[in-house]
Amino acid sequence: MGKKTPEINSSSTADMAFLLLCFFMMTTTMDQDKGLQRRLPPMPDPNQKAEDQKVNRRNIIIVKINSADRLLAGSEPMHVSQLKDKIKEFLTNPYNDPNLPEKEEIEIEGYGPCMVSKGVISLQNDRGTSYQAYIAVQNELVKAVNELRDEFSVANFGKPYFKLKEDEMAVVRKAVPQNISEAEPKDISKK
Known about the structure:
Layout: H1 13-27, H2 50-57, E1 60-65, E2 71-73, E3 76-78, H3 80-92, E4 103-108, E5 112-117, E6 120-125, H4 131-157, H5 166-175, E7 180-182
Parallel strand pairs: 1-6, 6-7
Antiparallel strand pairs: 1-2, 2-3, 4-5
Helix pairs in contact: 3-4, 4-5
């Protein structure tokens, strides 16, 4: 007769696995996905007259990146390093140019009346656009808005945007909105 091998008592293994699972679930922090925040422009009113639609076109700048990573802002070809200044001029419309966005006076809670640009940046890219070019353009667009927010913060609160309290930041975000609309990638180089 052979010797019987003693069996390992595994009745508490399931309990230990459950406790470990609970421990890891309670101690692990999950990072929230942070995406690019974008807001779509409002849909045009179907009852709107043709001349009013022309006025609305002045509020939109189309930024295109083709499959060769060439950049077009409005109707001007440009290098990505020129984009930030072009967008800042578009959003601020310093000389009240009739081809640049209108401004609307809005009442901001905790601040008062403020002239706010109706400008919207419409970003369009080709299916063949490189990821590097796309991100470089995104960075310049956000940098333009961030610089305008900083300028507004310093002028009105005496310190840069990132040093403001949350309620002051909310005022700045309303005064300098980030209206960037993205179209689905197309084959725009064929046009």
